[in-house]
Fold each of these.
Amino acid sequence: MSEPTISISIKMLDSELPVPSYAHPSDAGADLHARTSLVLEPGQRALVPTGIALALPHGYVGLVHPRSGLAAKHGITIVNAPGTVDAGYRGEIMVTLLNTDKDQAFEISRGDRIAQLVIQKVEQAVFVQVDSLEDSARGTGGFGSTGGFSAN
């Protein structure tokens, strides 16, 4: 079992919801829960509150990822995945869920696990404007440049 490497201050905005936790000792993502119940109709998206606010230290970010089981079984994903929780943000973490299923509505009950929160270190860059960039093996090749994508 790995030991936590950072302590994050959390404010529970709904004391009846569980504190985010890791399902397994080696998991990267802690489960986030729905604060409200709702039904996502096919193609519908909704901003779902989680009932928590965090104080991330400077140099860290919270990344909100979809749950793979919800995506695979029901077509539920996060519109802006991963969502970004900046260190300076102190409001409630919200998750923009999307039902990609074309036929079936999906019901979310209060307390359901809806997303995962991954805490990571981040670096801030200084952007230096130049007239040209150093060449690389890839060059300016974008989408599909390695043969993995076809627009046809």
Amino acid sequence: MEILKCEEVVKAVGGTLISGEVNTVFYNISTDSRNIKQGDLFIPLIGERFDGHNYIASALEHGALGSLTQKETEPFPGKVLIKVSDTLKALRDLAVYYRQKFKIPFVGITGSVGKTSTKEMVAAVLSKGFKVLKNQGNFNNEIGVPLTIFNLDKSHEAAVVEMGMSGFGEISRLTSIVKPDIAIITNIGVSHIEKLGSKNNILKAKMEIFEGLNEKGLAILNGDDKLLYGLNNLLKFRTVFYGMEEGLDLRAYNVESLGEKGSTFDIEIRGKEYRVRIPVPGIHNVYNALAGIAVGIELGIPPEKIVEGIEEFSPGKMRLDIINYNGLKIINDAYNASPQSMEAAIDVLKDISGEGRTFAVLGDMLELGEFSKSAHMEVGKYAASKGIDYIVAVGEYRSNIVRGAVEAGAKEEKVFEFKDNMDAAKFLKEFVKSGDVLLVKGSRGMKMEEIVNILTG
């Protein structure tokens, strides 16, 4: 982060300086009193189960030079205190101010699934020509995005920012911070449909990203997604549609799976054909690669370097992470889950299994509301239709997965259900044998990695 002066902060957040020196200089922004460093500005946030205001004194004692506050707070000798009406809004406002200091290309990414992999793919491509800032981990919400922005410094030449949401207005607030020059929407699925009610509403919420898009900017959209392709000729921005269907602006063809080694496809860039290799399994990653290629073309990365960037892509932790342990092959995809990503992961399981027995260990998909039972049944049906040998369902909706699998032809003696991860792991540890291939996947709240950890000791 570049330094911020106290007077800048006061002006940016519309606050009132109630103690301390106006010429104080801050070197970093922190919302976590446990990780305070010398020279920080502490921003105490209020959540359902915590109130950062309780830790203002501790933050100041451990090196913070100042703090924001939305509550009446006793002055702290020699430290800055700035009164604001809402500390979360102040965090956003300060990020808006700080982002405007950087005249570099910003890429904003949203969508129902594939956001993080697309972010990593775009960053891999842009790293061939720029020093790139990107969100770390799941820093894609109303706290994580501002903190990502504060990581910018003068050395950065481009930024790639993933934006998550669960309801209306969230993307709007995030895009107002990021002000992207390029906006990507990966797809429109049923993630968060519990709050939004329909896929059309999800589309509407994702389209909020355009509110912050530079008027001369570029929208990059998945043209194989019917709802997104429905925006063709309706947006006021330049638009690139990517996918595998005929007639799109950027199209992958001759797509070939290499199993565990990834996949390849051909693409035409500026009249010349290139063969692209993705080093991780799953045909769905072709879409993430196409988004990365589109950004690379827009920002002038030479095609040969774009292809190099895709080949150097690495997925995030617990995202189709293949672990070989004592003869078992485990696909740890426990980071999150939706109906679309479940089907994609099951495809990967089938694709890399070889001669081994296949196990789909599937946990609950959360935030699906009234669609929960039917969505879990469909996942069970899909696993059975792909010929998965054993289906192990875990969680509240386990019986719906099992029912769907049996209805699709799975034999009852090959379908198992467990209330929690511990019971499932105990069963699997006794049942699996060398040569077996397991997919472990569920929503983040299910913590399915617990099963992986037990199986791998």
Amino acid sequence: MPLWNQDRVLAAWNFASDVHKDQKVPGTDIAYINHIGTVAMEVMGAVSSAPEGIENPDLAILCALLHDTIEDTGTSFDELREGFGQEVAEGVQALSKDTVLSTKEAQMADSLARIKACPKEVWMVKLADRITNLQPPPAHWTRVKAAAYRDEATVILGALGDAHALLARRLQEKIDHYVRYC
């Protein structure tokens, strides 16, 4: 029996590929869909290697594929709800920063609170997102900025690490290795 619905995953991949088609990873010439794919691969790896406790693998994978659509494209909550269902739209909304809040700290606290109100499959996406983002920082980042980003990752791990042991371990390893940039 498959762990996830391949047709729904392909529909989300195609949707994300379309709405992110003109975007690049900031500071690079790499297509942004690469980031979307790596987050989804982290989640799929976690689902396939340790599926116990994951009640809805589709939710985790669909949210991974769609996690930046509201925040970074013209995609609306209603569009996601119509295409992928209420639970997926709510998960993606929770994973989207509220830029009305004035500070990064307030945005992070708000985001984590909204994510924690969702099923743990959504928590897994945030862990996977930060795992993939803890690559070497952009050249223009200072050591102070890199340290702040690493510290945010520690906060994320503390808040959401109970979602999945493998993702928590991977994020801790990335945090430990990221210290070289701080």
Amino acid sequence: MRPSGRAADALRPVSIETGVSAHAEGSCLIRCGRTHVLCTASLEPRVPPFLRNTGLGWVTAEYGMLPRATTSRNQREAKKGQTGRTQEIQRLIGRALRAGLDRAALGERQITIDCDVLQADGGTRCASITGGWVALRLAVNKLMKAGEVKMDPLMDHVAAVSCGIFGGMPLLDLDYAEDSEAGTDANFVMTGRGGLVEIQAAAEGATFSRAEFDAMLALAETGTAQLVEAQKAAIAG
């Protein structure tokens, strides 16, 4: 039995509320159980120096946690400086979202996805990727409606989910109680068509087997497919 009472292949309740920021070109609040992340997309008519005069666009990301996103207060990173964990996560979000992007179709402009964790209960990077794609989609829709891009630069959905081995069993979408005690922890980033973008997997104690990895991958395929459906419902609304 999982601490939450969920089945091994069950996601936490997922909701994606769009249009939560009055000023951002695209925004959503994604809730995956008790993990809540505000995702905003900001359009800028510029690209990093290494892309100037190439005709290619860029999507990047920034990630942060509010001081009371967790059970005890964390000092703001604006005061203490970014941790290696924060830098690693925001690079992952950027890489993941660019995987579903035609940068030539986007043109020489940048979209920055800001992912601010309001409340954390495991899986914040995965929620940031899934919600970040929705914010990106909404921003791109504005570009297309204004006629600023001729072809849709988003080639596919991108979503992410965690899996792990907890109590000897492969489980989908770990919350903090499971993640903190898991023998194996993994994050899977996938496209809407089922393509693999990135896998992060680590044994926290004993090694894990190929059969256990295959079981986690199968769970991730099921979970990301459900998350993609949630993305579709959010942008349709």
